[in-house]
Amino acid sequence: MTLPDRSSLSRRDYLRALVAVGGATALSACVSESDDVDVPTGTDDPDSLPARQHAWNDALSRDDHGNVQPPEHHVLVALSLIDEPSDDGRERVEDALEILERAYEWSNEGLVFTLGYTPAYFDRFDDSLPETVDLPEPEPLTDREDPTFDEFDAVLHLASDRSQVVLEAEAGLFGEADELNGVDVETGLTGVFERVEDQRRTGFVGEGLPAEHTELSGVPDSIPDEAPFFMGFRSGFDRSQATEDRVTIEDGPFGGGTTQQISSMDLQLRIWFEQDNHYQRVTKMFSPEHADEELVGDIGEALTSTNALTDERIESTQDDARTRGVVGHAQKAARARVDGEPPLLRRDFNTVDGESPGLHFLSLQEDIEAFVRVREAMTGDDLGVANANNGIRSYIFVTQRGNYLIPPRSLRALPPANPTGDDSSEET
Amino acid sequence: MQDHDFDRRTFVRRTGAVTGLLALAGCLGTDDDDDNDDTTEETDDDLEAPAFPEVEDPPDAVYVPTHRESMRMLEPVEAGDYTIAPMLSYPHPFWILTGGAGGEGEIERNDPEQMDGVHMMFTLWDDDTGVVLPVDSGNAIRVFRDGEQVGSPRSAWTMISQAMGFHFGDNVPLDDHGTYTVEVELPPLSTRTTGQLEGRFTERATATFEFDYDEAFWDHVVGEVEYLDEEYWGQRGALEPMDHGGHGDHGDQQEHDDDDHDHDGHDDHDGHDDHDHGDHDDGRDDHHNHDDIPYSALPAADAYPGTLLEPIDDPDTDLPRSGDAAFLATLFDSGSRLVEGDDRYLLVSPRTPYNRVPLADMALSATIERDGETVADTELVQTIDGEYDLHYGASLGDVQPGDAVTITIESPPQVARHQGYETAFLEMPPIELTVPEG
Ligand code: HEM
């Protein structure tokens, strides 16, 4: 891999580019770029950390309105098992992950991460997953897509505000760094997992980051400077996100875990920013009433901790389809709320993997079925509205889908399909 | 790139292309300015955008645009049940609907973000019936050069133009000359299909074509833009469909009549019925399959069976209009193939005046009243039929002679427009009809 050209990029952009490249050379370039930063260290007491791998929210910072601020830099490391899972392998994985926890504080400034497993991983066991876990193979979810599927075994999601940290953590796990933030790397994942290089995915989220990519032909200059996401608006308002409790599997051996869905998509930003105007963008992203009543502001700053989708605005989706000929993305997706509560915890981030703008849409939910239901509401085939006016669907092109189980921390290292072996679904 | 003060003579001299080939649908005569018979070779190799003069204060109706765009047609490609004809022109403005609550702000002119590139278009049809499919379930276009993807995937807009009828299109920026490969991915059709089209278009299909983007292309498409005589600009009327043998050799071409109301004869203008395109050997078209590409004209009013509903106010056009769209509404006899059991089928077919281009992606509903009481109130479902083409329909159990039928346009056609269509089909008041006695 060749390193990005330092002279042609802003510092922030250079660091982002290094994350995308990865590996030891990128890391050393990154370290020399950020040598003065002091990364908070983690804990020697693993039990002090939450029992759920996905318990990030309490550790992450919040903005002025109380919305969780996702870490800026993300890497999804795709992993393939070298040998069949064994107790020895389990121990190594657990030790390796505990090293990360010792090295970095569980926070934006430090590192948060999850390790999730695909249906393909669990296929190798005689037992099937307990009934309390809904983890089907990924499949196309709309008529318009022909995605590839995540068929490797696992994905490690690393996230930090420091690009150096995500790079270093990955390097440490794969024998490319001896020391992580002052902690010796005694064990890594090497020997248990190998990386699926062409499936490594990276990304970023945060105000101003998307606008740093206008050198790409797919990212127009007209993207708002402050936008945290490529499509120009804030997202992930507190009130439109599921709580971690809500997405947590309650019962069974994987109680305390969750399911994760990752879909990767290309984005068409030139039409979005050059042909549609702000009024249209607000209409298609939120709802026609958001546009008429100017509820959103330039990039969503006029919204505080909610996306302003009242029950009435959600219920009027069908009506807007008929009388306005257009519906909003958030409006129609919110039709899938259950008793007024959003079922998904979205942790999506922007990407320029492949040198063109995209989104890795990552969401957590209690079961994959919940994602499928929300995605159907978001697709809105039932609305009878012209494709170009059906929210943002004519701007997004799904290329890849994967489903994962994120076990509770206690089972994060190579879990068997049925850890307690006493579930009714077991066929022994 | 706008040029309001454009001097037609200068332009003609520069391109040397306009030689009395213009023909207008309906009522306008041809442009007989043929002071320049040169060939179309354009030697000036600057990438100069053709002028795009606009009409000042056009009517809120279909009007004659300032010019006819030229284009290159590529070989039609078959993909699954679909047949697709790609066409290329130079990037130019068009209008898209903004989703506003109504009125003028509802549509906005959209200028190309850069002139380097093409206006890419395609027509999609069913080769068995010749029916052009005027709806989009989510097309995806990917452009490649030397195996590398150029730009992000895109969904082309659905559009209507007078010369081309319904088509898909967009301005696609291209930074370099070269050979481009285009992949068009077509999802299954989500619109209701009936008759010969029932059960078709249920599979996704991908069509691939190639084109050269170079100076010769540019010269070709720019060199053949035809500007109309300024006196016609903005008058009510429309350009002749381009596949319709309308390049000056049209026998029944009528003289322009300044009376705005005298258009009715032209809705019945024959010729469009069977999707045949006449022949034209004017030597301008350096492509082969031009004649195979259907123009999206709906059948003429008399091709529909059943009882034609009558407008309450006698209109001065043969079909009632709303927002200048002509509405054909007919009640099929009971037990037709479009209903279950003995119901009657109400078929409403809105179309552009003059060229009978289908108006897709509207939301329509019908209310039936008898002696002041509402007896039925129903949404009309967008449908594409192998024989009657695009229409909006509903099955009615109880409808009688003398009943009042109101067709409400809940939202206008959500399709982008080329010049001459952007001021029509926006504000659309209800259409009041009755079921004729006996
Ligand atoms: C480029 C792609 C996408 C962008 C830019 C985007 C952006 C947004 C924005 C701005 C909001 C409103 C703000 C908020 O509620 O936090 C929103 C809401 C939402 N989006 Fe997306 N989104 C994208 C893709 C998706 C996908 C693939 C799904 C999958 C189902 C999805 C599901 C949702 C849901 C469930 C909501 C919240 C609805 C509620 O309030 O209940 N989004 N999105």
Automatic annotation (TrEMBL), chain A:
Spans traversing the lipid bilayer: none
Region (Disordered): 316-335, 408-428
Annotated PROSITE patterns: PROKAR_LIPOPROTEIN, TAT
Domain of life: Archaea
Stretches of the chain forming a coiled coil according to its record: none
Record-given protein name: Tat pathway signal protein
Organism: Natronorubrum halalkaliphilum
Taxonomic lineage of the native organism: Archaea, Methanobacteriati, Methanobacteriota, Stenosarchaea group, Halobacteria
UniProtKB/TrEMBL annotation, chain B:
UniProt lineage: Archaea, Methanobacteriati, Methanobacteriota, Stenosarchaea group, Halobacteria
The protein's name: DUF7350 domain-containing protein
Residue ranges of every copy of the DUF7350 domain listed in the record: 303-434
Biased composition (Acidic residues): 30-58
Native organism: Natronorubrum halalkaliphilum
Basic and acidic residues bias spans: 241-254, 262-293
InterPro entries documented for this protein: DUF7350, Tp34-type_sf
Region described as Disordered: spans on this chain: 27-58, 238-299
